[in-house]
């Protein structure tokens, strides 16, 4: 059963914007057993959208159209689809009621153009939007499933999960995709590949991909399995890879590193505080993405200036003058200092030169020190990170989180999920 | 003259890979005066590629096909195009010679499958590949230009620049694209639309798009202008929109808000420190994305726990107990407190309930206070932000940056770029 995706939005036809929504949609369609064999991007023009839909009806079993469901003049998807199918469009009273209530709750004025988002194509079922104002629509035409989805990823994602995936599964492609994945710290992409290629090449029925991702190396495996059959190959393969890579694997469930760290902190009864110089909040904001992180994260200091390093983290001015802000000594003093001022059991620090200015032959742009203090010992990590300012800051944050993870795993002996 | 792009590659139909080559191609086609109105992604299947090309011949003046020119079994573009056009494919002796010389120079053995890259479709002109082994091809069929391009960006990019752009310019679309854009704070997408729709609908020759983006509303305008003509309409339209929206426009050059804020801080000789509770570093990391931000950003405190609010920002424990951490009083005390401990002229604070837990009827999830202190006065902003934890934190950061911007603009009287 072949599915195709149509992304609507003139901005997606400029040199500045990619269609990334189709990645989310593809993931969910694959889970339901449908392969995506064609994707299109079309602008905010009624005729183009309608022509594309008419062509799609002749070739696909499933057509997912994403974007153009907003309230403004250039949101044309509902009208174009209604026109292509020759079906009328009318305001749904219950949807209008919902919209009014939503605007009232948020305290925004509801304007006449907003009423468009209550328009429904004849014969369509409404897919609830739990996050925004644009509901989705699901239609059938000559046996082809047509789904209209909102463009903002935050609205799209829950609608896919809660409304599209269950219905697509019911439609029954008769097979499903079995996936396994690992995330790995402390190895490069080619190191991972040379370790596991001798294994995964023995399982041609499993599609194995190694991807350098932000802060880790990912291994993704998938295998199409017919109803009633076992996914024996992928189970065996993932078991063997797991054994080979050992504690370098920090998750087998796509759990972000900050969640794994949170669990380790919670389980060991520790609390954390951070002192961030060049990352200036990137570590704190990552750690606190996890709900309930206030149980183990106390806070920290953005010690951007030397003055703040002294005043708020208790780093002796003399140490700063002798070794410079970017040094082993200051990284360790920051980690221990923030631990003491915040009253946490563990302190984590980063100090480095993110560039583009501020580098020297002895201390080049990209030089970063991570410090770690837990009351019984103080440790550090030195790295010279490649990339531009944004990349160096990002990599410095990941290096600090990885250092903390490895420290805790070494102490507690593991904890993968 | 309408151009369309077809990207070929099964990996572009997985959840892990986007087609980004079309961005490069779009940029060059726009330079040559062609609008890209449709993009497709298709897998490595001959039938699908051929069907798509046949459809394209009926609707476009220019068809650019990218990828699938390699030597392996799944590189099918040359064959599929030859089949769709009913033209024979044959080995070009000079190309084969070139290939052999290239392999010899690199010291790689040339295998029989490599000879495929010397295949040329009847009537095609060869586009030299200065970097890799796959030459491009340029054909004309029933007045439609068809261009076959290699997939690897490092091969694609010079071929676009050196061979496609000059020929496309010669074909003489005789026009170019003029762009203008605004970014706006403090209004919703539909508020912006109802303010400016009466204006932009008077300029049908300008394509105007309103987009809710992260932390702001964007307006993008573009107009195709013929050689020798003036871009009068877009100049007039953007001038009128600018007047209408006034200081709600924080940039006319796509400058990020943190850069605009940085410029205003620098110009007014101020320094900034932040106290972040629920955002826990998101504001600090945004401000410091800007190179040279150490000139005006001193640092701050991640005051996640109440204890850290007291210890490091000097908020009286009594105030916290009486009003709670999420209150006007504590927001203002944090802003002023961090200003004093960090020694900055301005202090900015955020305290709120990001959820999912911790809400109550009086203080629901999403309640956020922003505090601002500049030595002469203390101000605050109260918001109940919709969304999940991630969205509330993101919106709280944007609200704080917007509040700071508006405060500075009100004081200094503008500063747009």
Task: Identify the notable features of this structure and list them briefly.
homodimer, 417 residues, alpha/beta, Molybdenum Cofactor Biosythetic Enzyme, Chain A, Alpha-Beta Plaits, Maf protein, six-stranded mixed sheet, five-stranded mixed sheet, 13 helices, 17 strands
Fold blueprint:
2 copies of one chain form a homodimer.
Chain A: E1 2-8, H1 21-31, E2 35-42, H2 46-57, E3 62-66, H3 77-85, E4 89-91, H4 93-106, E5 119-121, E6 125-127, E7 136-141, E8 144-149, H5 153-171, E9 175-184, H6 189-200, E10 207-213, E11 216-226, H7 232-245, E12 249-251, H8 257-267, E13 272-276, H9 282-287, E14 297-302, H10 306-313, H11 317-323, H12 328-342, E15 346-352, E16 367-373, E17 378-384, H13 389-412
Parallel strand pairs in A: 1-2, 1-3, 3-8, 13-14, 13-15
Antiparallel strand pairs in A: 4-5, 6-7, 7-8, 9-11, 9-12, 10-11, 15-16, 16-17
Helix pairs in contact in A: 1-5, 2-3, 6-7, 8-13
Characterise this structure.
2 copies of one chain form a homodimer. In chain A, a hairpin with a 2-residue loop joins strand 10 and strand 11. The first copy, chain A, is built from 13 helices and 17 strands. The radius of gyration of chain A is 26 Å and the shape is globular. In chain A, helix 2 crosses helix 3, helix 6 crosses helix 7 and helix 8 runs parallel beside helix 13. Chain A has 3 domains: 170 residues, Molybdenum Cofactor Biosythetic Enzyme, Chain A, CATH 3.40.980.10; 75 residues, Alpha-Beta Plaits; 156 residues, Alpha-Beta Complex (Maf protein), CATH 3.90.950. The model of chain A has no long low-confidence stretch (mean pLDDT 92). At the A-B interface, helix 1, strand 2, helix 2, strand 13 and helix 9 of A face helix 1, strand 2, helix 2, helix 6 and strand 10 of B. Strand 2 of chain A pairs antiparallel with strand 2 of chain B, so a sheet runs across the interface.
């Amino acid at each position: 059963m072949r599915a195709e995706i149509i992304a609507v939005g003139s901005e997606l036809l400029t040199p500045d914007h990619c269609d990334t929504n189709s990645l989310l949609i593809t993931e969910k369609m694959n889970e339901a057993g449908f392969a995506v064999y064609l994707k299109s991007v079309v602008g905010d023009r009624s005729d183009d959208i309608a022509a594309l839909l008419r062509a799609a009806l002749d070739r696909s079993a499933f057509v997912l159209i994403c974007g153009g469901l907003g309230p403004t003049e250039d949101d044309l998807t509902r009208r174009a689809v209604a026109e292509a199918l020759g079906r009328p469009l009318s305001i749904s009273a219950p949807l209008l009621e919902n919209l009014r209530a939503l605007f009232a709750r948020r305290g925004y004025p509801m304007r006449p153009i907003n009423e468009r988002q209550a328009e429904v194509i004849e014969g369509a079922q409404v897919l609830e939007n739990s996050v925004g104002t644009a509901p989705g629509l699901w239609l059938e035409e000559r046996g082809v499933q047509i789904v209209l989805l909102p463009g903002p990823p935050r609205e799209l994602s829950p609608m896919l999960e809660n409304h599209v995936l269950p219905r697509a599964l019911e439609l029954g492609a008769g097979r499903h995709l079995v996936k396994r994945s690992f995330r790995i710290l402390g190895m490069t992409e080619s190191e991972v590949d040379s370790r596991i290629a001798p294994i995964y090449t023995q399982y041609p029925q499993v599609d194995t991909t190694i991807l350098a991702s932000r802060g880790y190396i990912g291994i993704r495996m998938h295998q199409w399995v017919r109803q009633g059959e076992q996914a024996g190959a992928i189970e065996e393969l993932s078991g063997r890879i797991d054994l080979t890579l050992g504690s370098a694997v920090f998750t087998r469930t796509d759990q972000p590193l900050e969640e794994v760290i949170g669990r380790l902190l919670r389980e060991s009864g520790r609390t954390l505080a951070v002192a961030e110089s060049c990352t200036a909040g990137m570590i704190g904001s990552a750690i606190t993405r996890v709900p309930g992180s206030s149980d183990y994260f106390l806070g920290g200091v953005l010690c951007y200036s030397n003055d703040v390093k002294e005043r708020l983290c208790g780093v002796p001015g003399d140490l700063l003058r002798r070794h410079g802000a970017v040094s082993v000594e200051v990284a360790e003093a920051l980690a221990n200092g923030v631990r003491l001022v915040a009253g946490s059991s563990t302190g984590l620090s980063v100090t480095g030169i993110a560039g583009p200015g501020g580098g020297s032959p002895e201390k080049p742009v990209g030089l970063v020190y991570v410090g770690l203090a837990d009351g019984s010992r103080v440790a550090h990590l030195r790295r010279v990170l490649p990339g531009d300012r944004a990349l160096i800051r990002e990599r410095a944050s990941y290096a600090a989180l990885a250092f903390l993870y490895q420290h805790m795993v070494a102490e507690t002996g593991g904890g993968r999920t």
